[in-house]
Design goal:
The N and C termini lie far apart (54 Å). The chain folds into 2 domains: 107 residues, UDP N-Acetylglucosamine Acyltransferase, domain 1, CATH 2.160.10; 99 residues, Hexapeptide repeat proteins (UDP N-Acetylglucosamine Acyltransferase, domain 1). The strands form 4 sheets. A 12-stranded mixed sheet has the order 3-6-9-12-15-18-21-24-27-30-32-33, with no helix packed on it. A 10-stranded parallel sheet has the order 2-5-8-11-14-17-20-23-26-29, with no helix packed on it. An 8-stranded parallel sheet has the order 1-4-7-10-13-16-19-22, with no helix packed on it. Helices cover 0% and strands 31% of the residues. Keywords: Repeat, Transferase.
């Protein structure tokens, strides 16, 4: 038998399922879903109409933190929901308890932790890591190998270039004091973050900001300004022609 499908799983019309794929109890696959080879769809996962799950992908898995981890697993974590017309690339891992909207691309070898919310038409590039409790607004693009730390918020129409790193802990794992101040960055609507930039814990990147490649942002920024350097400082306003129109 090349497939193992639990009898309680609900499979829609015209669904294509590849070889050596496991679909666990309570999973729901909408109409016209395509599932590749060697895929694991964990219990209760919901996949919307027309979505594609590529080879060797794991969706809806329970988190299993280390014994020393500060993350506690919610015993009643909700199911993973993948919206309609999404593409989930090969070798990706998506955890239970997250919500992915319509027409989202999650490229190969990316992973999305639990309790994340990704709105419609978002692009998650190859090898991107989204830690737990991250929110990503509609039409945002997060390019290859970016790291979005836990408790970050990225709003609508944001561009995050390859290799961007975000952080959320000024104490880097030491002292009990850190638990009171762990906070990821907030990237406001239409901001652009250049390749290899670093956003420090809790900073707010204002609307329409342009953060140059390699900059280190250690404080809140002003709207529609270009920031460069280490630490980042304001260089000039963003040209009028580059601002997005309503």
């Amino acid at each position: 038998m090349s497939q193992l499908i639990h009898p309680t799983a609900r499979i829609g019309r015209d669904v294509r399922i590849g070889h050596f794929t496991l679909i666990e109890e309570g999973a729901v696959l909408g109409d016209n879903v395509t599932v590749g080879n060697h895929v694991t769809i964990h219990s209760d996962t919901v996949i919307g109409n027309g979505s594609v799950i590529d080879d060797h992908t794991v969706v809806g898995r329970w988190p299993r933190p280390a014994k020393t981890s500060t993350v506690k697993v919610d015993a009643d974590l909700s199911e993973l929901v993948i919206g309609e017309e999404c593409t989930i690339g090969a070798n990706t891992v998506l955890y239970r308890g997250s919500y992915i909207g319509r027409e989202v691309l999650v490229a190969d070898q990316s992973f999305i932790r639990e309790k994340c919310t990704i709105d419609n038409r978002v692009v998650i590039g190859r090898g991107v890591a989204l830690e737990n409790q991250v929110k990503v607004g509609s039409r945002t693009k997060i390019q290859s190998n970016a790291y979005i730390t836990a408790y970050s918020r990225v709003e609508e129409d944001v561009f995050i270039a390859p290799g961007v790193v975000t952080t959320n802990d000024n104490f880097m794992g030491r002292t009990e004091e850190r638990f009171k101040s762990v906070q990821g960055p907030i990237v406001k609507r239409r901001a652009r973050i250049g390749g290899g930039a670093i956003l420090l814990p809790g900073v707010v990147v204002a609307q329409e900001c342009f953060i140059a490649a390699g900059a280190v942002v250690n404080r809140d920024t002003e709207p529609a300004m270009v920031y460069v350097g280490v630490p980042a400082h304001a260089l000039r306003p963003v040209p009028e022609r580059e601002l997005m129109r309503e």
